[in-house]
Amino acid sequence: MFGSSDFDVNKKDGFEYLHISSETSNKQNLIFLHGMFGGLSNYDPLLKRIQGYTIFVPKIPIYEIKARKISISRLTEWLRSFCETLDIKNPILLGNSMGGHLALDYAQKYADDVSALVLTGSSGLLEKDFGSTFPRRKDRDFIRKQANLTFYEDLIDDTVMDEIMTVVKSPSKLTKLLALTRDTHKYHMEKFLPKIDHEVLLVWGKQDEITPPEVAYMFEEKLANTQLHWIDKCGHAPMMEHPEKFAAILQDFLRQLETKSNSKTSQYL
């Protein structure tokens, strides 16, 4: 969720992001996209276990965009600008929760500029949330219980709770958060999924309460080229709860993509 990243934060032209460089210049670019209640630190456990790739983790400006303009489509255009500014070519997009929704929208709008997708607990079809009004937004115990729906185990410490409470008690931030929540429900991706023909890796927690297992099966059915992997005793953020297992699944998928790419290249030589 929140918290400071253990990696250096880069800034360029208004963008904030983590950048892990590969020593091999021809390695695939990856972009990791956090969820609505997420931040740069969400991917720290995974970044510490993935090597040999160039990885970008941008801070998605949920609270910087005006409430009346905040939407998945608006964030897609922001992501487009991010890629253009940093000259990121044909990335693999990995998205958790809302970040998965954003990755899907980007892929269907800029299909030729995406290599593959990795979705974990993605919204876009069916998802639960904290609610549409936060009627008990000053009740710390209630908010903590709701936030813990994200995980199989209790991973919400006092530092994270302090940051969450700062958001839900801020009228401005809460308004933007609720506006984006409403848009994720309204902007349903079902009709777009058959048009997405990229290779898609689905990594799902078996005990995900926010985008439950049925959602993973829906994505598997409606997307053309998918492989679905489950992680047991895991909730809505597998890359945080089980980074070792997630890393192993991801690296195997990346090796498959590299093998296919090399095979296609050899056909033309």
From TrEMBL:
Protein name, UniProt field: Alpha/beta hydrolase
What Pfam families does the record point to?
A: Abhydrolase_6
GO MF annotations for this entry? hydrolase activity
In this protein, which residues make up the domain named AB hydrolase-1?
31-248
Query: What keywords would UniProt list here?
Result: Hydrolase
- Key word Transferase present: no
Q: Which residues form a coiled coil?
A: none
Q: Does the keyword DNA damage apply?
A: no
